[in-house]
Design a protein that fits this description.
This protein has two domains: 143 residues, Aspartate Aminotransferase, domain 1 (Alpha-Beta Complex); 243 residues, Type I PLP-dependent aspartate aminotransferase-like (Major domain) (Aspartate Aminotransferase, domain 2), CATH 3.40.640.10. Helix content is 37%, strand content 18%. Bound molecules: pyridoxal-5'-phosphate.
Amino acid sequence: MNNRALFFKHVAQTSPAPLALEIVKAKGCKMWDKEGMEYIDLIAGISVANVGHSNKKVIKAIRKQSEQYLHLLVYGEFIESPEVKYAHLLASNLPEQLNSVYFTNSGAEAVEGAMKLAKRYTNRTEIIAFHQSYHGSTQGALSIMGDEYWRNAYRPLLPDVRHEEYGTQAAIDVISAKTACVVLEAVQAERGVYAPTVAWMQALRRKCDEVGALLIFDEIQTGFGRTGSLWAFERYGMVPDVLMLGKALGGGMPMGAFIARREVMNVITENPVLGHITTFGGHPLCCAAGAAAFEYLLEKELVAQVASKAALFKELLKHPKIKAIRNEGLLMAVEFESFDVNKPIIDAAISKGVVTDWFLFAPHCMRIAPPLIISEKEIKKACAVILECCDLVG
Ligand code: PLP
């Protein structure tokens, strides 16, 4: 049996129609399948490969660490230099109140940890989240996901969760002295890239301060330069109480983190001790890879290039079928009339060597969120293919 047959036979399927490309090599912005066909990657593993696939610096760090040690002991017991180095690097590039880093194995696990932290720190249970938000697929993260279609099949979920409309005064008004935390994406990605106003975010910050609720930012998709600043919260002129990271955090290795000030983080240390534990969180290979990726991002000043690369996409992607392009840096939603228009264009683009997809809550929008290292030449080539597919289809 070939890999394709074995994939459908033995690998659990999350949808009836996976992309099912058999990629054998990936480098920079490109991927190659087993027939040797070359693809430009416009989605970066969903905002993971910000520094490109198989980045040399990342591979070198993984190799070096793999010769020293792999897993030693559960999280938080031994002093492991890759973990210490990465926590220090992150803290050095964050406002000083975000100084205590808890590394997890995934984004959803960071969300779980952050919500536990808020409940313990505030001694409250109410969690306010937003319609059309995505925070992961574990039961806690699913409880705050902003869509009843996905939540409903898995009820009962966490109690005391309220969903509000992103960017509205009503959402701020419901935050009260019963609220443990407000959890939100810095930019709602899966809704098709929507950012609230600076004024709204600042009002949200003030209200959380007034009532003593923790403001928890999900930057799992927006972190590490994706939206044109290192962290998306910078654009709002405020700092969250808890920052959740994932995806690009590991430079291609599986990793998440929730970051808070030491005083908040301390609630998981005692009464009970071991308030949040993980065997593999902060794995030495992941930390070594993630730190190398972050250093590369900073050294190459990739964040400063995001705006001009996004502008080039927007300038080139002009077609009667394209209704709008919403973007926050290189997190871009190209809007078509419907999924029925978008999907065949996406399929045609893939067949011509450009990998893209759609958004969970915005199936009529094409996702463009490439590695931040994408070159002008690659952008021009990818856009030419997308425009050709717009002409070809329907
Ligand atoms: N939060 C956001 C905004 C995400 O986009 C994702 C994943 O797509 C998650 C959380 C969950 O991360 P993970 O898939 O690593 O659990």
